[in-house]
Amino acid sequence: MATLLANLIILYFNFLLVLKVAANDPISRCNQTPHPQVCSSMLENEIAEFISQSDFRDVLLRATTARTVLALRQISSVDMTQLDKPAKAALANCLELYNDTISRLQLSMRSSSSIEDSQTWLSAAKANERTCRDGFVELGSTFPLEFSSFVTNHLSESLSNMLAVNMATPRDKPPPKNRRLLSHGIPQWVKAADRKLIQAGLTIKPDLVVAKDGSGNYNTISEATVDITTNMQNLMMIGDGKDDTIVTGSKNFVDGTPTFNTATFSVNGDGFIAQDIGFENTAGPEKHQAVALRSSADRSVFYRCSFKGYQDTLYIHTNRQWYRNCDIYGTKNTVTSHGRDDFHENTGIVMHAAFVMAAPDLKPVQGSFQTFLGRPWRQYSRTVYLLSRLDDLIDPAGWHAWNETMSVSNLYYAEFQSKGDRADTSKRVNWPGYHVLTTDQEAEPFTAGNFLSGDSWVLATGVPYASGLYGYDVGGNN
């Protein structure tokens, strides 16, 4: 009997051991991802047992980065002379986007990177891949055969897996709700030299001056730069006022330029700050997409700026961006249009203490047009209005579907304590994804402090900032 019991105990422990191995080897973990087969194919040469979720995340991240590098090589090897003009333009954008994706993945691999930061950069990587594909579709062109299946399927699925795995990875420790600040309101982690620049404000001596009278380094901004590239980080531009210092352009989609390239001013370098500047695209409404400013810069800040255009005036492409006391003008029938096709992307648009109203030239005829708070560009679109004033130009339904076939079940649209003539939510759309938030606790996740982790970076810029729900006048006048 004793021998039989011992054998049973040994067998039981062996059974537990098998379960333990099965639950922790890479292939078993891949079965928990959105695309198990893609995950398994990437890790088939990995021999690792009893790995933690963090180890699995690191292994998969290295494999995803390697796959992205391979995709970039394939794109770079395409013979451009065999492509038509639209395809060349789309392919050139893919090269830029994939280089940025590799940079974001490499940032995520750093041991000093938090899971929250990595989720932002991985979301940017997913958006880059999507934007690459969209460029060909928009221009009515097709992917070069050399890399079409690889880019459209495997890499997109690899990035989706990475987003899911990163989100499921335990945090070493929760980020502090309120970071320690020095007496002047600047986070302690900001370097001493940078603190001096921030505190100095407009008294600092600029590196470059643009002056129309010839007294500066350049006569026009376009001579200096209108494309803030990825390696141009922590750049600050200060104008004389949003109606006095204006960057203008007229590139547009109808004349053959991809939407991504129509921007009068594009920003890719992280840590960019613009203050008291206007950005304008003067292409008329008949020219369709014509962007005034496109930003992909992480932790970028725009303060007391204006953005004027007709369609797609402000292209908020990727990463964390903060707009304060800014004016945005456009003529399309929706204020926002957010795109998110993966549930695990941590992106969205939050309009906090915004004032949505008709411009003076629209006011007399606004009854002839329908205007909506937003429409979903992708199935997981996310847009939230907090404590905003909605004028009577907004349609009572509030929101508009992209088309008749796109589901409105997976999106997240919400409003919290809006004011004004169109604040009444009783006539809003009856969508599963639409929500009326009624408590501070429901709205708090979408504040700058939580949604953007703004305490750790916006505060350091010196721009007026409140971490929580309250502390702003509607329209951003404080």
UniProtKB/TrEMBL annotation:
Question: Keyword Hydrolase: yes or no?
Answer: yes
GO molecular-function annotation terms? enzyme inhibitor activity; pectinesterase activity
From the UniProt record, give the pathway where this protein acts.
Answer: Glycan metabolism; pectin degradation; 2-dehydro-3-deoxy-D-gluconate from pectin: step 1/5
Query: Where does the Pectinesterase inhibitor domain start and stop, copy by copy?
Result: 22-165
Q: Which UniProt keywords apply?
A: Aspartyl esterase, Hydrolase, Signal
GO terms of biological process kind:
cell wall modification
The signal peptide here is: 1-23
Q: Does the keyword Signal apply?
A: yes
Q: What protein family is recorded?
A: In the C-terminal section; belongs to the pectinesterase family.
Supply the name of the protein.
Answer: Pectinesterase
Q: Which organism is it from?
A: Musa troglodytarum
